[in-house]
Amino acid sequence: MSEYIDEIKSLMGQADSLSSTTPAQIIACLTYTMLCAAIIYCIYRFFYRGACYSENFAVLLVLVTLITAMIILTISSSVGLALGTIGALSIIRFRSAIKDPLDVGFLFWAVVAGLTTGAGMVPFAVIGSVFIAVVYILLTFLRTSRGTYLLVIRYTDEASDEVMRIVTSLKGRLKNKSLYKEETELTVQIRFRGTDTPFMKELTDLSGVNSAVLVEFTGE
């Protein structure tokens, strides 16, 4: 039993291989980390397709990548420091809800990039970040080739038949229908390519249609 205790003590007392790390190595690690963070930042900024772009979140991705690399670079020096860091991080609670599920993926990407560069696996971090960026760009173009939108129409009974004819021709999917005293509000999910929307003018030209609004649908 004493041998195991001595072994644990030796592991806990190994410190400080970090002291042998030169400033040049630390700068090199953070430089490669910043390269990965820049890739993540650019992809999020220029190819974001959510409802509302947040510059603060884009900056957060850069900070998370750098901070994660610094943590991994530090705790790799000793087991004791690693256990202490895990204990300290376990008490942190985040109460800000992430509205877009895609933002969770970007956060994981930032964390993994920081982990790999901090652990010294620089080629894996850089090549992996470039590969993920290419895949995300391709998926973005495939997704935007045919967008999903919500069409909200307010009309009176006079235009009911014509409105339903146009909605049927668009192969719309009914999401909501609200009846008021003098008019009806219809919300329909539609999909189409490009930005040409002749059906919007056709709807607004109908007698009895008070308004027609088209909003991009992101699932939120």
Account of the protein in words:
The protein is an alpha+beta fold and about 220 residues long. It folds into two domains: about 120 residues, no CATH class; about 70 residues, Alpha-Beta Plaits, CATH 3.30.70. The protein is built from eight helices and four strands; from the N terminus they run H-H-H-H-H-H-E-H-E-E-H-E. A hairpin with a 4-residue loop joins strand 2 and strand 3. Helix 2 packs antiparallel against helix 5, helix 3 packs parallel to helix 5 and helix 5 packs antiparallel against helix 6. The longest helix is centred in the first third of the chain and has 25 residues.
Question: Count of DSSP E strands?
Answer: 4
Which residues sit in consecutive blocks of at least 5 with pLDDT less than 50? none
- SSE succession: HHHHHHEHEEHE
Helix share bin: 55-70%
Spatial arrangement of strands, main beta sheet: 2-3-1-4
Main beta-sheet strand count, sense and barrel state: 4 strands, antiparallel
Helix and strand composition category = alpha+beta
Query: N- to C-terminal separation?
Result: 57 Å
With helices defined by DSSP (H or I, 4 residues minimum), what is the helix count?
Answer: 8
C-alpha Rg (nearest Å) = 27 Å
How many independent structural domains? 2
Shape category = elongated
How much of the sequence lies in strands comes to 15-25%
Mean pLDDT: 79
